[in-house]
Design a protein that fits this description.
20 helices; 18% strand; 5-stranded mixed beta sheet; 8-stranded mixed beta sheet; alpha+beta
Length: 610
């Protein structure tokens, strides 16, 4: 227990009402948010002499202050708890980062409506079908709809500019309303059928098509009848594949698996009797957290997240129960203003879905643990190879990328004990050096990385340099300068490419003493080094290409004397873009307002290298 916090005095003032409590550390940061039906009883449990849970012991040892907010009911406390968790993101709470919006299929409100992928605010008029669990599920559904209903999926600009049918019409996947190949009434009929299909009313769609087929056959329009027959066959096949439940209800099915600190919640999204798709969630779980709290926290944060445009079904099936399940059910129902049921005991089809979700959750955790163990094993072998006395907690790798000295970019990628730590990746745009001078580029990148270094800075245990002895020497000089007043400097290792640049033939050079050594091609320690080296290479190349493209798109005209912002704008607007300006003749350039014949010749020569 924290020596600075007087728990007895505090507990004497606490009410036995329902409410929410916030625990603070000595720096004034909220480290835990909780709710209770009886605040006094719950908070007293934290300050017993024999706390059984290691996580609770760690939490209590950091408490410097607690404040409480009383509520009228346990349901109100749950809603407030969720708001506080979202606001403070406390260290000791289970945290779910479900910050990505959900995609929909959008049917626009036009004369000839289009079907399209949509994510974000629903500003445009039309119908939105979903939400789907991920973009892949939407694209798959759109691809399927294209085969079933000949409705356009092109954007409005493309649609308006057509003078003849596109390839989709030739493939039978669009009826070409853009050039009048279909009547408005026939197109509207297909739009209506597609809308019914998206609502899950397959039988109604098939019934209407059967009636139209019979009508066409009776009128001896046999080709039309045959096209309806083919559409009916395709629809029946799809309906059979997608049918999942006789009740045709909406439900979320959640399988949960929690092992070795990793929790996976695998959700099956079932809407209108169809599986829209599935999605796995991995909440951030503090060490030694019990399953009951993991379950409660996930359900609270997932179903009370008002920022996500997601429709919540009336039925949620969960593989495990937890203490606050009934209170949470009431809180969700209150927040959504509709009755929502949480169930753990189900039969028939729902039980088979639950087994499927549970299997996927178990496999996901097993895969993550296997990967974690593999990475851990590689770290241990690398420590053994380098004969290190302390564990490697952080590694960094630098690489330089440019094209003939143009748009030089340096990358710094970071690995921790779990593999790549992308949040700490950095790129450095290299300026003020002789183009192509990799040594100067490396010096600048590492200098910038360790500028303003203090005792709280993130210092790597190992620093890999993608290059030979020359690059390593430069890096070592900079590190020696920057760490002269520090207790511990990173160990530098150069990774020189082998003969023919083949993986497995790399030569490693230690910064201390510059001794060289190699590792067997099948060594897990070498695989870890190759992984961080390849990742730094990828990150540098991506940064360089982006910078080069940006430079070529924006700076070509800027570098020409006499061409200021107004002339640049006039050139680009009048001729239609940079490529058109580059391809224009002097006569064409003169036609642009504000461009004299002398200026036109200057621009032409500068862009053509003349």
């Amino acid at each position: 227990m924290s020596s600075g916090f007087n728990s007895k005095a505090f507990l004497n003032t606490v009410s036995s009402s329902a409410g929410v409590y916030r625990m603070y550390d000595s720096a004034g940061d909220v480290i835990y948010v909780g709710k209770a039906k009886d605040l006094k009883k719950r908070l007293s449990s934290y300050f017993r002499s024999n706390l059984p849970n290691i996580k609770t012991q760690a939490l209590v040892s950091h408490i410097a202050n607690i404040d409480v907010t009383l509520t009228h009911s346990e349901t109100d406390a749950l809603l407030l708890e969720n708001d506080y968790i979202k606001q403070y993101m406390p260290k000791y709470n289970v945290l779910l980062r479900d910050d990505k919006s959900y995609p929909y299929i959008f049917l626009s409100d036009h004369r000839h409506p289009r079907l399209a992928y949509h994510r974000g605010p629903q500003r445009e008029k039309g119908h939105y079908f979903g939400p789907y669990p991920n973009g892949g599920a939407v694209r798959e559904s759109l691809h399927l709809l294209q085969k079933l209903f000949p409705i356009r999926q092109c954007d409005d600009l493309y649609y308006k500019s057509r003078s003849r049918p596109c390839l989709q019409y030739q493939l039978g996947r669009c009826s070409a309303p853009c050039v009048g190949k279909v009547s408005d009434s026939d197109y509207a009929e297909q739009v209506k059928l597609a809308s019914l299909f998206l609502k899950g009313k397959d039988n109604l769609v098939i019934a209407e098509l059967v009636a139209k087929m019979d009508e066409a056959a009776t009128s001896q329009h046999y080709e039309l009848a045959a096209s309806y027959r083919d559409q009916i066959t395709a629809l029946r096949r799809v309906a059979e594949q997608q049918e999942v439940t006789n009740s045709r209800g909406d439900l979320d099915v959640i399988g949960v698996h929690y092992a070795s600190g990793i929790a996976c919640f695998h959700l099956l999204f079932i809407r209108e009797g169809k599986i829209f798709g599935s999605r796995s969630y991995y909440p951030k779980v503090p060490a030694q957290t019990e399953l009951d709290e993991v379950l409660r926290s996930f359900m609270l944060q997932f179903y009370l997240n008002a920022d996500i445009q997601r429709t919540i079904p009336k039925e949620i099936v969960l593989s495990h129960g937890f203490d606050d399940m009934e209170a949470l059910q009431q809180a969700i129902s209150l927040a959504l203003d509709k009755r929502v049921e949480l169930k753990t005991k189900v039969r028939s089809e729902r039980a088979s879905f639950l087994r499927l979700a549970l299997t996927n959750a178990s496999n996901a955790v097993a895969t993550k643990l296997s990967h974690k163990n593999t990475v851990e094993q590689r770290f241990l072998l690398l420590e053994e190879t380098l004969e290190l006395s302390t564990p490697i907690r952080r590694m960094e790798c630098f690489d330089i990328s440019h094209t003939m000295g143009e748009s030089t970019v340096a990358s710094c990628v970071v690995f921790n004990r779990e593999g790549p730590h992308k949040a700490d990746y950095r790129r450095f745009n290299i300026e003020g050096i002789t183009p192509g001078d990799d040594y100067a580029a490396m010096r600048q990148a590492i200098s910038r990385r360790f500028d303003k270094l203090d005792s709280n800075g993130k210092i790597p245990d190992l620093l890999f340099i993608d290059g030979g002895l020359g690059q390593l020497n430069i890096a070592q000089e900079v590190v020696d300068e920057k760490f002269v007043a520090q207790d511990k400097a990173p160990l530098l290792i150069g990774v020189a490419k082998g003969e023919g640049r083949k993986p497995g033939l790399e030569t490693l050079i230690l910064g201390e003493g510059r001794q060289t050594f190699s590792l067997a091609a099948d060594s897990p320690a070498l695989h870890l080094i190759q992984h961080i080296r390849d990742e730094s290479h990828r990150f540098a190349i991506t940064g360089h290409r982006n910078r080069r493209q940006k430079t070529r798109n924006t700076s070509t005209l800027e570098s020409i004397p006499g061409v200021g912002p107004k002339r640049r704008k006039a050139l680009l607007q009048h001729l239609g873009g940079l490529q058109e300006v580059k391809g224009a003749s002097v006569a064409e350039l003169v036609k642009v307002p504000g461009i004299s014949i002398e200026m036109a010749q200057t621009i032409h020569d500068a862009l053509r290298g003349g």
